[in-house]
Amino acid sequence: MNLQWYPGHMTKAKRQMQEDLKLIDLIIELVDARIPLSSRNPDIDELGKNKARLILLNKSDLADERYNEQWSAYFQKKGFYVVKVNAKSGAGLKSIQGVIQEACKAKIERDRRRGIKNRPIRAMVVGIPNVGKSTFINSYAGKACAKTGNKPGVTKGKQWIRLNKTLELLDTPGILWPKFEDQEVGKRLAFIGSIKDEILNLEELSLELLDYIRTNYPGLLNTRYGIKEEGTPVSLLEAVADKRKCLIRGQEIDYAKAAGIVMEEFRNGKIGRITLEFPPVEEETAHEDHP
Ligand code: G4P
To answer: Buried-most residue among 94, 108, 156, 290 (CB within 10 A)?
Structure first.
């Protein structure tokens, strides 16, 4: 897969991020629960050191619940606060407020010692494109959408959304750049639809996805499409085409159409809750059954 990313764009995004980070206490980083590592950019760890950190495992409704738990534990072990959410439905959002207070204890205590009372925590949402940043800001802050307007010392155009007495959110999210260089990461981003389909070979992608699902989630393809899960990936795609009547002029198999169905149904969760990436196995708990 040959994917292009423009260094100029990246440098500008990074510079903007550095500026914005100066204004805030807490980074709320969204990752996609189906690919929590591939959908994050570890550069944010360097950029955001000294800030309180909260990771939201978003789209947790589309990911395998067992792995949602494991990923939460994984990030917690690394020192992040973690909340599983579904920004679209609002599930999980209620518990965020309490976790933020906990994550920012040090800042609250520092303020108290210095005699600063009631200074709200300032937070910013970051993440790679398509992880759900806007959806999250709208559903979390949407109702409280009383914008505080520009304040002295704040870059013109920046707006703070006042969520309550203790929390203010920058209204525009910080966009992180995905790590395309790694082929496997690129593939996972393609699976979830974070790379424009026009530049991908969807048929090839669907074959890999079918093979992955049949291996890691036996039974799901049979349940969804009523097909046998044996044979080559091509035969699986042909079986889907057959069941869904994907035919050109009534006889030839329409591979492109069948591939489109598989990708679309995977992406919106119709095939099932599927996680594409598992937490790296730590030394002491090494298993051989992790792909
Ligand atoms: P971004 O700002 O980070 O780029 O992402 P954005 O909010 O635009 O969300 C990208 C897509 O992901 C949207 O779908 C959005 O509805 C969907 N989404 C966000 N959070 C969740 C979640 O927790 N669960 C699920 N299932 N989907 C989520 P879209 O296809 O662009 O639009 P639509 O389907 O809402 O019409």
So the answer is: 108
